[in-house]
Design brief:
single chain, 278 residues, alpha/beta, Elongation Factor Tu (Ef-tu), domain 3, Rossmann fold, 7-stranded mixed beta sheet, 15 strands
Length: 278
């Protein structure tokens, strides 16, 4: 149960695990996530389902090592078992035939964007993906996207691959070419989602972002995942994780996400030098 069948390092501190989870795989839909716990004394934390195979009974999890729990998960090898794995959680992406769709992913946000792009394309839409990373070595899943969408644009901060600049620069290129889009998704770091939403919504493109605030139980009871959308408190674990980008209070989201950032950094460093008492 919850056995790691395959482990792949996609880049510095970025890991892809294929996990045996038949019940989750049979029910999982694009946009949903799981909450897991690596060991008995560990914390519960969410990861979006990057892909699923109901026939094989597997799900793929892609994550970046940023704190103790992700460091422990990243240190596990094939054949190991994740202690707790609960899901699928959250509302699935609403899919219909929109027409022309823009899918924008930044950094590790490319992973949760992939299943959305795949099902949006399967629904008969024309899909253009814009993928961003700080440098070529940090770009993930480009080949997977090229296999399922109509066009891929790449932007790297340092210009080591694709267009030099941010994903917003690549979007501006598309708009300058006269490209029109009926719907957009943007998933990535908070500043990237904020800036992308401002640009796309300003261009008249309804845009959804996927929020990943602090989560504990995944059922809406603890209130840890609260976000402000349209001036109202929403619970991302049961009402999201997708919300209209032009309605999200990104400032409050940033503050909440930064609550444990320093502790995460210290715990990650402790794990790297082999300490087990943090």
């Amino acid at each position: 149960m919850n056995t790691i069948l395959r482990k792949e390092v996609l880049g510095p501190d970025v890991v892809r695990l294929r996990v045996s989870a038949a019940k989750i795989a049979h029910k999982a839909k694009a946009g949903q996530f799981v909450i897991l716990r690596v060991r008995e004394d560990g914390e519960r934390f969410p990861l979006t389902i990057a892909d699923s195979d109901p026939d094989a009974g597997t799900i793929d999890l892609i994550f970046q090592v940023v704190g103790k729990s992700t460091a422990l998960l990243g240190a596990m090898e094939e054949g190991g078992e994740i202690l707790d794995l609960v899901g699928p959680l959250g509302l699935a992406t609403e899919i219909e035939r929109f027409g022309r769709v823009l899918c924008v992913g930044g950094g590790i946000g490319v992973a949760p964007l992939y299943p959305i792009a795949k099902v949006v394309k399967a629904a008969g839409n024309v899909v253009v993906a814009v993928l961003g990373a700080r440098s070529k070595g940090l770009l993930i899943m480009e080949n997977e996207f090229r296999a399922v969408v109509d066009e891929v644009r790449v932007a790297t901060d340092d210009g080591s691959y694709g267009r030099k600049g941010f994903v917003t620069d690549a979007i501006n290129d598309l708009l300058a070419e006269g490209r029109k889009f009926d719907r957009a998704w943007a998933i990535g770091p908070v500043p990237m989602m904020r800036n992308t939403s401002k640009l796309t919504c300003g261009a008249g493109i309804p845009t959804l972002v996927s929020l990943n605030p602090i989560m504990v139980d995944g059922t809406g009871m603890c209130g840890g995942c609260r976000v402000i959308v349209g001036g109202h408190v929403r619970f991302a674990c049961v009402e999201g994780p997708e919300f209209p980008g032009d309605q999200v209070d990104f400032d409050s989201l940033s503050r909440r996400l930064g609550t444990y950032r320093e502790k995460e950094r210290r715990d990650h460093e402790a794990c790297k030098i082999g300490l087990d008492h943090v």
